[in-house]
Specification:
CATH superfamily of the largest domain: Vaccinia Virus protein VP39
CATH architecture of the largest domain: 3-Layer(aba) Sandwich
Order of helices and strands: EEEHEEHEEEEHHHHHHEHEHEHEHHEHEE
CATH class of the largest domain: Alpha Beta
Strand order of the largest sheet: 12-11-10-13-14-16-15
Radius of gyration: 23 Å
Number of helices: 14
Largest sheet: 7 strands, mixed
Length: 411
């Protein structure tokens, strides 16, 4: 394999024949080429190479040269912990379709885990090509009988196995196992309970989607017409065009109206919201319109934590961070101050921050006794300047909600 001076080995394949690989010449090392922003993998397993060649689009594969596979880097890594229930369902269908193709090539997935599959926009994409195995290779943490079936994540290996799913999905045994697996990983807000995700997967549209902020924004189909655009929309469009922005993180995206505006202008978007129902709506719209939006059920802190466990070349960055009508919730419900807010967004290296600052004149859920003296627009601007941002104030029709465009001085 040709290695440029900017290639770095980021994952070393196992060579212990008692664990994963019987072919000691097939190490499954993963390299990253910083000059092209591409993942480079040598794969000597002919069956795996045939499968990768057949399923290039599903594996985000750009080219295959001999035994060297080159993959596009996914801009916004994500995994099961931040997927919406709609994404879980969509991924399950995708898994079964892929399995049907793989088994005809005498290839399966070894010990699948949440980092095997992430979404590129609304499309599931395979990342860990090293999980492709011949059937006689499989060993390790899964018993051979289970490993003959497709696996989706370590806590519900059996659940999406085609044979088990068809025979016992409604009998209780597998359902109890699945429910227990989801419950064992369930967390409090902002992530939807995994148990609820399981029920939505099983019952499809029959299970109601509920949330505090459903209906706050108009229907995405109506908003797509972009008639009578507000100052919030026109400000975002102006910033995208002026700064030639290519990527954006939308904090508290609701149903994603601003994410869609950016994506329709060629911007790759990570859309974050803590309500599963809203992310489901945006995911389904994104899938239908084939937009470059990756919707996830997370807040800023949770997604940052998710990023810190991946290799550095894959950590998310953004030209723009959009924070419309969310900062006051972060301050009064999540114990942020302005310094913590800037510390966290700094991780994503934004050139521009666009937010609407909501003053106490328009915050109804905070009692006077619970208000902070430091929470005001002037103080926020002072902190922004300390972090190296120049600030422009864009008035709106609501005097209690100004738009602030903060541009980093070295951007």
């Amino acid at each position: 394999m040709h290695q440029s001076s900017e290639m770095e080995l980021i994952s070393e394949g196992f060579t212990d024949p008692k664990r994963y690989i019987y072919d000691l010449d097939d190490r499954r090392d993963v390299w990253f080429d910083f000059s092209t922003d591409r993942v480079v993998r040598p794969i000597n397993n002919e069956d795996a190479l045939r499968a990768i060649n057949l399923l290039k689009d599903c594996f985000a594969v750009e080219s295959i040269d001999g035994n060297t596979v080159v993959q596009r880097k996914i801009k916004y890594p994500n995994f099961i912990g931040v997927w919406s229930s709609a994404q879980v369902t969509h991924q399950a269908r995708f898994i079964l379709e892929i399995y049907e193709l793989l088994k005809g090539l005498n290839v399966n997935l070894f010990d699948g885990h949440p980092w095997n599959i992430i979404f590129e926009g609304a499309q599931p994409r395979w990342i860990d090509l090293g999980s492709l195995r011949r059937f006689d290779e499989a060993s390790g943490s899964c018993v051979r009988e289970v490993n003959q079936y497709v696996t989706a994540a370590e806590f519900y290996r059996i659940g999406y196995c085609k044979g088990f799913r068809e025979k016992t999905f409604g009998t209780g045994e597998v359902e109890d196992m699945l429910k227990g697996g989801f419950e064992s990983l369930a967390e409090e807000d902002p992530i939807l309970s995994y148990t609820e995700k399981f029920y939505r997967l099983r019952e499809r549209e029959e299970r109601d989607r509920k949330g505090t902020w459903i209906g706050y924004s108009e229907n995405l189909e109506i908003l797509a017409e972009e008639k009578n655009l507000t100052a919030y929309a026109t400000t975002l469009i102006d910033v995208i065009e002026k700064h030639d922005a290519k990527s954006m993180i939308d904090l508290g995206c609701n149903n994603g109206q601003y994410s869609a505006i950016a994506a329709r202008r060629g911007v790759e978007v990570l859309a974050l919201d803590v309500e599963d129902a809203l992310i489901c709506e945006l995911f389904e719209y994104t899938l239908k319109q084939n937009l470059t939006i990756t919707p996830v059920v997370a807040n800023l802190s949770l997604y940052r934590h998710a990023n810190e466990i991946v290799q550095e070349p894959f950590r998310a960055t953004a030209d723009i961070i959009l924070a419309y009508a969310i900062l006051h919730h972060m301050v009064h419900r999540d114990s942020y101050d302005f310094e913590r807010f800037f510390d966290e967004i700094h991780y994503f290296e934004p050139k521009i921050l666009i937010l609407s600052f909501v003053s106490y004149d328009d915050i109804k859920f905070v009692e006077p006794k619970d208000r902070f003296d430091w929470y005001n627009q002037q103080n926020f601007i002072s902190v922004a300047k300390k972090f190296g941002y120049a600030v422009e104030i864009v008035p709106t029709t609501n005097t209690a909600r100004n738009i602030l465009v903060c541009v980093r001085n070295n951007a």
